[in-house]
Design brief:
8-stranded parallel β-barrel
């Protein structure tokens, strides 16, 4: 089974942003030692819960501390940027770390409406151009503009010997269809959606037989009871954080949203999380891989503290890799 890690660089209870970043660097080194295939970091803006608004900067540090594990963004939120700028940044990484760099493309805002406006102006208009922007991004990476194109003589230097691998991230039939149309590998966020994931992925494969990663939340501990308690504590800490940092108006909107969906209780966690001891987690991951026919499973683990997070990944690796 191929397993990878998705890291949101969480600022856990009692920690500072620096602690979160240092923990990520330590976890990436551990991930390589234990045989994980790739290590992706997420992009968020003006979200005190997460400490990485610039994945490429953090990936530069991760790459310097590792030797073979693939590193990448999960995701580059493309509507915020011009494709040329992204190509330059990830070409630098691919030059430093040949055959190791992934660029996962997403179209979520990754932050509040105000942060989104500050970052890229009219985000919704930019989202409408995502298909054309992906084409432009691919053309820059592969240097395939026609001779009469405006960018024919524009080089996103440095040009690496091996271009990054491109992935499209998503949680819907729309994203799966777009990935297939573009001939891109597809990473499906199982942990982020209530939609019929296996059907979405099957539809992608019927259009284009590319590689598929399934991203899932997992908490593993020595016993199933310990894993459940970690999930409960993580849920409590998350609610405390919302109460502390979200305005009253926004909090009401969040509560109304959660009420309409069913609040995130322990029962909800068992639906969205894989929880258990190493043997249980191994069986559940195997089942998930079989259901999706996935090439790879990408694991997101956010526990209440960094030590239990590292231990969860360690136990998973020992059971599965």
């Amino acid at each position: 089974m191929k397993l990878s890690i998705l890291d949101q660089v969480p600022v856990l209870s009692g920690a500072m942003s620096r602690d979160a970043i240092l923990s990520t660097l330590e976890l990436a080194e551990m991930a390589e030692r234990f045989g994980f295939t790739r290590y992706w970091v997420a992009e968020h803006h003006d979200m005190k819960r997460f400490a990485c608004p610039a994945p490429d900067i953090l990936l530069g540090l991760i790459g310097s501390r590792t030797k073979k594990i693939r590193i990448g963004a999960g995701a580059v939120l493309l509507p915020h940027y011009r494709p040329y700028n992204i190509t330059e940044r990830y070409n630098v990484l691919a030059t430093l770390y040949p055959k190791r760099v992934d660029v996962g493309i997403g179209r979520a805002p990754g932050g509040s409406a105000e942060a989104t406006i500050a970052l890229s102006g009219n985000f919704l208009e930019n989202v409408k151009k995502i298909s054309a922007d992906i084409d432009e991004l691919v053309a820059f990476f592969q240097q395939t503009f026609t001779k009469d194109h405006l960018y024919a003589n524009v080089a996103p230097t440095p040009i690496p010997n091996f271009s990054p691998d491109l992935w499209l991230l998503g949680t819907s039939e729309k994203s799966a269809k777009l990935a297939a149309e573009k001939g891109m590998s597809y990473a499906f966020g199982h942990f982020m959606t209530e939609q019929d994931g296996p059907a979405i992925v099957d539809g992608y494969r019927k259009r284009y037989n590319g590689k598929v990663i399934i991203a899932v939340s997992v908490i593993c501990a020595p016993t199933s009871e310990a894993a459940r308690k970690l999930a409960e504590r993580a849920d409590i800490e998350n609610k405390k954080f919302k109460e502390k940092h979200i305005s009253k108006a926004t909090s009401k909107a969040v509560r109304d949203r959660d009420r309409s969906k069913g609040d995130v209780s322990t029962e909800g966690l068992t639906a969205k999380y894989i929880l258990g001891n190493p043997e249980q987690v191994h069986k559940q991951l195997q089942s998930l891989q079989k259901i999706y026919q996935a090439d790879e499973i990408m694991i997101l683990t956010n526990t209440p503290d960094y030590e239990s997070r590292k231990n969860s990944y360690r136990l998973i690796a020992q059971a599965c890799l």
